[in-house]
Amino acid sequence: MYDAVVLAGGRAERLGGADKPMVSVGGMSLLDRSIDACVGAGKTIVVGPYRATVHQVRHVREWPPHAGPLAALAAGVHWVRAPFVVVLAADLPFVRPETVAELLRQAAGPAIEGAVMLETQGRDNPLFAAYRTAALRRGIALTLAEHGLLVGLPIRVLTRSLALRHVPDAAGVSFDCDTWEAVALARACMKPRSR
After folding, report:
1. Could you tell me the residue ranges of all domains in the chain?
2. Around 139, how many Cα atoms within 13 Å sit in the side-chain half-sphere?
3. Bridge partners for 164 per DSSP
4. I need a surface site. Which of 123, 147, 167, 175 has the fewest CB within 10 A?
5. pTM of the model
6. CATH homologous superfamily for the domain 2-188
7. Rounded Cα–Cα distance for residues 159 and 17 (Å)
C-alpha cells in the first residue's frame, strides 16, 4: 500500500518559465504521465499550483510558494497515510507503473528506508524514488529542528540521512525534461514510426 506525491512546482527557468508540468509529450501532459505511473496509489497528492488533470488528486501548495523541493515534499507528505510514499517530479516522460513497482519492492527491503532511481549519468534522483513514510517524516522533522525552516534547502539535506538503495536505470526511464531540447527528444521518441 502506498500513496504518491508528485512535485509540480518550480519556476522551470531552463524552459523560459513555461508551465513545465503541462508541457505535452506524446499527447499527454508531463504531469499526467507522472500521475499515470502511480496507478496503484491509494491517493495521489500534487504539490504546486492548481492544474487540470484527468486524475482524481489532492492539490496542495508548499509555503511559501516556490520554497523549493524539500518544502514541497514536506507539504505533500503531510497528507500521506500509507506506509510507503512514491515521490516523482512532474517532468519524467518515460516513468512507468513497472518502474514505480520496482522502486517500492526495493524500498521494502530489510534495513532500507527508501529506493532512489540512479540516473543513466550515475547520479541519484531523490525526486524519482519510493520511501518509507515514517523515515521521511523523521528526516523532515530532524531537518527542521537543525535548520529552523525548509525553505530553499536542497532535498539531499534530508535524503543523505536515510538508508537508501540505489536502483540502476536499465530502461532509460530517468530521462527528464528540463530543457526544450529534452522535450523535443522525448517527443521524437514517442512519435509513432512510419513503416
Report:
1. 2-188
2. 23
3. 114
4. 123
5. 0.92
6. Spore Coat Polysaccharide Biosynthesis Protein SpsA; Chain A (3.90.550.10)
7. 28
Grid cell at residue 58: 489532492
pLDDT in tens, 102-148: 999 999 989 999 999 998 777 899 999 999 999 999 999 999 999 99
Beta-carbon contacts of residue 94 (< 8 Å; ≥ 6 apart): 171, 172, 173, 174, 175, 186, 189
- Do 46 and 52 contact (CB within 8 A), yes or no? no
Instruction: Measure the CA–CA gap between 181 and 187, rounded to whole angstroms.
Output: 10
**What is the model's pLDDT at position 193?**
44
Identify which of 47, 54, 58, 57 has the alpha carbon closest to the alpha carbon of residue 32. 54
Q: At what angle do helices 133-147 and 69-77 cross, to 10 degrees?
A: 130
User: Which amino acid appears at position 122 of this protein?
Assistant: G
